[in-house]
Amino acid sequence: MTLTRQILVAMLLAVVLGSVAQYVLALPVLPGFLRYLLQDILGEGLVVIGGQIFLASLKLLVVPLVFVSLVCGVCQVDDAGSLGRMSLKTLVLYLATTALAISLALFLGAIWQPGTGVKMQMDGAYAPPEPMPLRDVLIDIFPVNPVAAMAEGNMLQVIVFALLIGVAISRSGEAGQRLGQHFRDWDSVLMRLVGMLMKVAPYGVFCLMYSLFARQGLGTVNDLLLYMLTVTAALAVQGFVVYPLLLQFLARLPPLPFLRKIRPVQLFAFSTATSTATIPLTLDAVENRLGVDNRVASFVIPLGATVNMDGTAIMQGVATVFIAQAYGLPLDMDDYLMVVLTATMASIGTAGVPGVGLITLAMVLQQVNLPVEGIALIIGVDRLLDMMRTAINVTGDAVVAVIVARSEQALDLALYSKSHTDF
Fold first, then answer.
1. Which end of the chain is more exposed for a tag (fewer CB within 10 A), N or C?
2. What is the pTM of this model?
3. At what angle do helices 80-112 and 294-307 cross, to 10 degrees?
4. In this predicted model, what pLDDT tens digit does every residue of 295-324 receive, in sequence order?
């Protein structure tokens, strides 16, 4: 069985068994030993431990893999103009795809009107975390203590430090060549470790998904069903229509090989709902399956996992329209343009801040004078939607990596088109 099918089977089993466990635990008459088995051993014990250990193992790899891989990529770039050109292309594409994503979300939200007829009834106001000022965000990008940045997992600071080290190595002559080879050896070892972890990925995915559905089930839908369907439809269009068209027209590449080889990454991102933990898998797929050169992938993928949030932008667009309709507050064209601008810039401006999705949504609502407490209504179903939008986030990162690599003549076309039976 291929890796994609193994992960998919693990997810389906986890959803079914987890939902059954939640239903059984809700029964008023349940033997004590059965409740102990389902709740203490499976629901809160062995399965949770297995899932968290697997997720921690991947997170363990994120900082060293990003740092080593980015240093390897940058130290191979002899032309400083090439690095600057690649950086500009990456940022422009990330901003463009995010703007497209939220525009699509606003369009579908205006047509389907998911908030019409919904009565907003909250017990209390929702108080979002305060967003970091843009000035502080820009200053915080540059590390004061690189060791502390790695320990805290501050990816933007790690990226900047890796860029500086890579550039210095490329300009250090023979000493730089020796150190560069050392980093390349470390990169090979870390990628081998990623491959080893992927062997147990289906078991880790099962543990994570089972724990979620045994605890929460499918969540509360009711009046939010149309909202969920609108977000899901927008995510599907972004992932299976917009991205393939970008590959077709900007990179002149057939999208089917890309969609086939990125599936395991999408499934894993869906099960974990974290783009950061998926970085090792995304790097492995982009470099070894899609043929993107390390000097491009090592820069584009970590940066995208930090600042590129197309799936999150879609949620923000639909949620804004939903809350406006639920409160009966109309939005005009200026409001829609303000939503697009605010959400697009916030995708970079609030990078590295915990709870970034809700923070940026609160910022968007404030910009168009909508009640921020409306966020409380969608929190109940946000966990499932978060899983789907994370899959779109990592897909967008991979698409930009392929397009940038194609424009820089850093894409192995034979490897991109090659069929892989293990995926």
1. N
2. 0.80
3. 40
4. 899 889 988 887 788 988 898 899 899 888
